[in-house]
Amino acid sequence: MKSISEKMVKRMIKNIQENGRNMRRNSLVFLDWAIYGVLVGLTAGFVASVFGLLLGEITAWRMAHPQMILGLPLGGLVIVFIYYHLGEHGDKGTNLVLNSVREGGAVPWYVAVRIFAATAVTHLFGGSAGREGAALQLGGSISSTLAKLLRREKKNPTITVMCGMSAAFSALFGTPLAATLFAMEVVNVGVIYYPALVPCSFAALTASMVAGAMGVKGELFDILTVPPLEPVSAVKILILSVGCALVSILFCIALHMSHDFFHRPFWNKYASVFAAGTAVMLLTIVARSSDYMGTGMHVIEKAINGEVRPEAFILKILFTALTLGACYKGGEIVPSFFVGATFGCLAGQILGISPSLCAGVGMVSVFCGVTNCPVSSLLIAAELFGFEGIHYFLIGVGVSYMLSGYYTLYSSQNIAFGKYKAGTKLHEPE
Predict the structure, then answer these.
(1) Which CA distances in Å does 30 have to 20, 38, 45, 156?
(2) Could you report the per-residue pLDDT of 367-376, keeping only the tens digit for each?
């Protein structure tokens, strides 16, 4: 009995010692990534905030001078010069960042400089683009550069780039929860990269505080009317969600077709961007509206308030496809918000259910359909609209995610697991 007791005590002491060593090791890893996340949040948050403030000033000035659209073709020539003479050829934009995350590579420092300048030029002359594409590239580039300066570029570069993506996204949109999960979810659909949770969350929260201190305000919307969740209202939102899935497919197809067209061998880079800029300029003149220039956040706000032009979502798809299909720079996510909000508002008017609620549901559902990120989509809904009506957002996100199939804005995005049968990878039959 005595020998058995001694063995149990020794085993218990050994387990305690082993657990103590594990705790110390885990604590050091936690501190290492937490501190790095804060540093990235401070750095990328500051740069992204400056970028956001600059874009705000540029947008305000352009809206006061709508004739700036006449210079869009020339602005495109400047962007091509920046990308094809002051940097490497064959820029892949956000896909470069996604490839870097998946392959464990770094994002070069000059990516931040190029995307900063090119996006500013695009918005100055009224190109139809967002800003989050620039945010993801800015964040990834800054985080990779910081890691190199701190001599930690070999310490899990995948997490390093994700950390920067979360920080810049959070600073520009004011949605730290969604920013944290989006970076972890967008690269491999069906798999959330949980090892990045601590650094991404610390980076996103820090960047959000930096942005707030610098006067960068995140987006917040108030839904005017949220009806009780009943069978009739649920069915109407279900119908809207199916429509959002189809619209997200249309949006992805339009962007990819435009890109393929303007990158055919017979196109010179300068000729393609000049042609696309001229087309956007002429369409703006014909439409007699500046609503489709830039991000169009004011149109999104109107849609949330129940006001919409029936053709708005179709025209935004066309304008954005022409702008980003050539060599203009910006992002696709805010345009997807525009498309979803305007389509949802219109559908709400037709279906006879709160156009304001439907605009919010459409906005988040189309975002989910084009990015294949359902968790991030629900968090965006919560951070932008609050939890009132979250059940409707759940319906919209779930239906749009499943019915949008394997279409995506990002050609480098990897669908790790199929949508229609648990445990299957994309190349396996479902």
Answers:
(1) 15, 12, 21, 14
(2) 999 999 999 9
